[in-house]
Amino acid sequence: MLSLYQLRIFLTVxxxxxxxxxxxxxxxxxxxxxxxxxxxxxxxxxxxxxxSRRGMTLTPAGEALVDYAQRILRLTxxxxxxxxxxxxxxxxxxxxxxxxxxxxxxMPTWIKAFHEHYPKMFIHLxxxxxxxxVRALTRGDVEIAIVEGEVESTAFNITPLWDEEIxxxxxxxxxxxxxxxxxxxxxxxxxxxxxxxxxxxxxWEEKTLARFGITPRVVAEFDxxxxxxxxxxxxxxxxxxxxxxxxQEVQAGLLxxxxxxxxxxxxxxxxxxxxxxxxxxxxxxxLQILSAEFPHISVQILGLTQKxxxxxxxPLRHRSHPGxxxxxxxxxxx
Length: 334
Prior knowledge:
- By secondary structure, this protein is of the alpha/beta class.
- Among the domains are: 1-86, Winged helix-like DNA-binding domain superfamily/Winged helix DNA-binding domain (Arc Repressor Mutant, subunit A, Orthogonal Bundle), CATH 1.10.10; 163-266, Periplasmic binding protein-like II (D-Maltodextrin-Binding Protein, domain 2, 3-Layer(aba) Sandwich), CATH 3.40.190.
- The chain is built from eleven helices and twelve strands.
- Helix 5 links the parallel strand 3 and strand 4 (121-127).
- Helix 1 (4-16) crosses helix 4.
- Mean pLDDT is 84; it is low at 304-334.
């Protein structure tokens, strides 16, 4: 019998044409991916890929399976949603925690998609600094958390979503408006608008700037990316912000992103969850919605055969914001 788990892995390898890249997307080891592909080929009785030093390409049999695999997974997702929508489990509540950047910038779009599929389910959103959200998840006050900050804990599971590029943001009257990049040395003496003292984002900002020998000249600190954006627009100073947080302002011509020459800065957006999370039908429904954008959620969370938590990690590809085409960074910051 065909395994949905193996079909997801097969499609990822077919898309990437490379075991290493497929393993990175799936947050699995390369030997594990290879083993699943060999098991699927043994079950089908024919080779599905041509293997060479340059990568893996589909055989005619593999090409035939791609279409069926896509249809099977699509029908499975539709069946799951239809059954849930037709059952008593279509009602329920989910408590989600999010960091100040992810909350207002990302969650509204995801919640809208969730309600379109499950109109009788309700999401309570709590925003706060990453440590606050982590404590809420540990206490059980929230069931899922999406945060940007650095997290180290064995009390819950961590599934990376993607690496978000962090850029220097300037207003219309700044001398760097229109520039693509600057030399890091040019940051010296600039007026910086930063996050509040003690926040993980503030610590990351200071550590990152210190790598270039820069001690920021802080003119203002705020606890909200929205307030920081407004301050940059007013000409008060510059700031370091994730691309997803400034997308609308950039499109409107209110803010401009600037990169550092020969350097790309990232922070990893993470999904936090516990073994108890999957006991809530609303949580599983929300994760199903997210898996349409992040397929590895299906593999690593919804597709797990064993119960209980496990930590997942691995290299990520950069996305400038959800839904946009992925880019491969040339340099990743530590």
